[in-house]
Specification:
139 residues; 2 domains; six-stranded antiparallel sheet; four-stranded antiparallel sheet
Length: 139
Amino acid sequence: MGRGQKTCEKCGISCGPRTRVCKECGFQFAFKPASKERRNTRMIRDFPWTKLEKGDVIKCSGGPYYILEDGEALNMGERGKFKVEGIDQKGIKAWGLGKNGGFCHIYMGGEQIGDDVHGKRYVKIPHRVHKLQPKKVRV
């Protein structure tokens, strides 16, 4: 069987990895249910980060990094979910949630490229930030 394929338990035919129902016999494949958090949380992608308030939950990625001598990038930014404590001119002050526990500063200032120091060159770019909100129940 090729990579990225699965076999139907009932008829033995090879199907694509995201196939929910076998096209030959109609067998329904089992899938892992979506987590409760994912079903109940809405992600807001485009919003002004300066409007964040204490207690807001955000998800961030990207951010500053170093470029090493061999051209490889060494990420220095924060990743994961955070609870906002406050904001300042250059970023967001937040507490990490889950495995990213602890207090941190999420850089949101302008782009800067630093000088070569000890074989490393830093690139300061803002993080990508998404706001997480509970989904509203429609009545």
